[in-house]
Amino acid sequence: MTDSPYKQLVYASTATIGRDLSHPETQRELMKIVSHSRRSNPKRGIVGVLHFGQGKFLQILEGQPETVDALFDAIREDPRNKDIEVLRDEARDELRFAAWNMKFLTLEDEMAAFLKRHGLSAFDPYQLNDRMLSDLVELLASGQDEGAPATA
Predict the structure, then answer these.
(1) pLDDT per position as a tens digit, 66-125
(2) Using an 8 Å Cβ cutoff, are 123 and 115 in contact?
(3) What is the C-alpha separation between 129 and 21, in angstroms, rounded?
(4) Which runs of consecutive H residues, i.e. helices, occur in 8-129?
(5) How far is CA 50 from the centre of its chain?
(6) Residue 84 lies in a domain
(7) Which residues pair with 28 in a beta bridge?
(8) Across all residues in the chain, what is the average pLDDT?
(9) Which range marks the domain in which residue 15 is found?
């Protein structure tokens, strides 16, 4: 790793809380994740974004390398997700998501356009190449926070 003060970790996982964002139990669990992150991340100096789509998570965590690694260790133990795969782990000189202690996005219309642009039929972060991942990071950075997932 370089002398850069920050780390950006991008990972994908499969949700064990359900695939359908319209399902009340899935909404409740997502709301718990987002609410907890928004309360605890500022204390840790962690920022980032969480995307949920088609039963998959893509999350970007940024902060001091030690704190990002510690949080990621806890995420790996969280039973609400499985099949965790690191897609990018790199040193950064600045935080791309500095304004968000945890931005939450589904971006249904934008994601449909992203999938079409890259010739994909469904959101599957495990199949993204580096160019697609960079494009998705930019899409997530430009999207407006959707607040907490709706509750039924």
Answers:
(1) 999 999 999 999 999 999 999 999 999 999 998 888 888 777 888 899 999 999 999 999
(2) yes
(3) 26
(4) 24-44, 65-77, 108-117
(5) 3
(6) yes
(7) none
(8) 90
(9) 6-142
